[in-house]
Design brief:
3-stranded antiparallel beta sheet, 18 helices, binds carboxymethyl coenzyme *A
């Protein structure tokens, strides 16, 4: 439990209540309302958790006004430039950057777990070929608790560690298998002399009939996408993982729940939705029509890939991703593609439009990631699975942090009940 730095006073009618306040390392002070219900018989109301900190955490920090994202204190821009995804995984999991020996040891541990249980191939075959790869991933990751039962005892620190390594190691294999299955190609086994990102590209794009050589620029871009998505504080899917885990559920089940949450278009599903929107717009001359729709209060349409709950200045991940997108498109010689033209013009117009400026709606990470992934040859249905496999480390690091907290308890929000008050049952003849 943190030590209070001061006390806030809440007055309801003629009674006052002292509420402890805590100081974070950085960021706004936090008001502890945990005992309020017991003392004052009131709940607090914050749908969407816009003002509510649900846990203590040491992993990731976001300053939405400054457009700052820190993993364990390190700015995302520095990590994206100088680190690589497996090193970031180590950092998120253990709190510090590894030395050389620690890195080699970690890479070995992850690499030794990249294959999935052979029986899982049969499990995949139970899905329809046209299943969305996210649907397959929710099922297969959930099923890991059946295949790897020996790492589901959450009270055993060693099993928790094995579960974390298995999750990070196997999720690219699972995502690639979901893709291969959907296109009717044979599964490709992992190749452990490749990098984490290179291995994933090969598992997606190689076929037994041909040699596949990983392109280093695409490999670097893939690795960056992974790093940029690795963690993002207490977002919807991470909070889902924590809430599921707070009941004592095993980590594979919790992460399956996180994947399900990520799938929604307001969250990780936005990368797929964004590219589909760009295609639907089709040509630059149709952009004004869609901008008008986005502003129309009576139209549910939103510009996908724009806006963020926390970032109100810019999304630092989007900046790095935009640069990566330029590199990849250059490498692949894609300059004239119609979707890209629409994306560039939409970005330009939205950044100048008073509606978007006033509401602080900037392109987010999903706006650019879809463009890169499409250029790499991924179908839109694979965009969100790639987000999921990149976020797996964040989910498991947050889950481990939660389980190790001795003060942890089951998450159980309350409500503002606005339904019928108590009433008597009426037999059907009397209704
Ligand atoms: N297009 C048009 N208007 C928008 C958009 C948008 N993309 N996003 C927000 N607004 C408007 C919204 O209509 C509202 O207007 P008003 O105040 O007049 O009612 C105002 O901006 C605030 O919106 P909100 O829904 O209260 O904001 P939120 O913080 O609850 O939502 C968001 C954040 C990301 C869900 C939302 O901006 C959105 O739906 N964006 C599109 C989906 C998207 O790109 N999601 C990916 C987020 S980044 C990756 C990730 O973390 O998963």
């Amino acid at each position: 439990m943190p030590t209070p730095i001061k006390t806030a006073k809440l007055t309801i009618d003629d009674k006052s209540y002292d509420l402890p306040m805590y100081a974070p390392t950085v960021g706004p002070d936090v008001l502890d309302i945990g005992k309020l219900y017991g003392q004052a018989d009131v709940f607090t109301f914050d749908p969407g958790f816009t003002s509510t900190a649900a846990c203590e955490s040491t992993i990731t920090y976001i300053d939405g006004d400054k457009g700052e994202l820190l993993y364990r204190g390190y700015p995302i821009e520095q990590l994206a430039e100088q680190s690589h995804h497996l090193e970031v995984c180590y950092l998120l999991l253990y709190g510090e950057l590894p030395n050389k020996e620690q890195m080699i040891d970690f890479e070995n541990r992850v690499t030794r777990h990249t294959m999935v249980h052979e029986q899982m191939h049969n499990f995949f075959r139970g899905f329809r070929r046209d299943a969305h790869p996210m649907a397959t991933m929710v099922g297969v990751v959930g099923a890991m608790s059946a295949f790897y039962h020996d790492s589901t005892d959450i009270n055993d620190p060693w099993q928790r560690e094995v579960a974390a390594i298995r999750m990070i190691a196997k999720i690219p294999t699972i995502a690639a298998m979901a893709y291969k299955y959907s296109v009717g190609q044979p599964f490709v086994y992992p190749k452990n002399d490749l990098s984490y990102a290179g291995n994933f590209l090969r598992m997606c794009f190689s076929v037994p009939a041909e040699e596949y050589v990983v392109n280093p620029i695409l490999e670097k871009a893939m690795d960056r996408i992974m790093m940029l998505h690795a963690d993002h504080e207490q977002n919807a899917s991470t909070s889902t993982v924590r809430l599921a885990g707070s009941s004592g559920a095993n980590p594979f089940a919790c992460i399956a729940a996180g994947i399900a949450c990520l799938w929604g278009p307001a969250h990780g599903g936005a990368n797929q939705a964004c590219l589909e929107m760009l295609r639907e717009i089709g040509t630059v001359d149709r952009i004004p029509e869609f901008i008008a729709r986005a502003k129309d209060k009576n139209d549910p349409f939103r510009l996908m890939g724009f806006g963020h709950r926390v970032y109100k200045n810019f999304d630092p991940r989007a900046k790095v991703m935009k640069q990566s997108a330029d590199e990849v498109l250059d490498l692949l010689g894609i300059h004239d593609n119609e979707t890209l033209k629409v994306a560039k013009e939409l970005e330009r117009i939205a950044l100048e439009d008073p509606y978007f400026i006033e509401k602080k709606l900037y392109p987010n990470v999903d706006f650019y990631s879809g463009i890169i992934l499409e250029a790499m040859g991924f179908p839109t249905a694979m965009f969100t699975p790639i987000f999921a496999l990149s976020r797996a480390v964040g989910w498991i690091a947050q889950w481990k942090e939660m389980i190790s907290d001795p003060a942890g308890k089951i998450g159980r929000p309350r409500q503002l009940y606005v339904g019928a008050p108590k009433r008597d049952y009426v037999a059907v003849e009397g209704r």
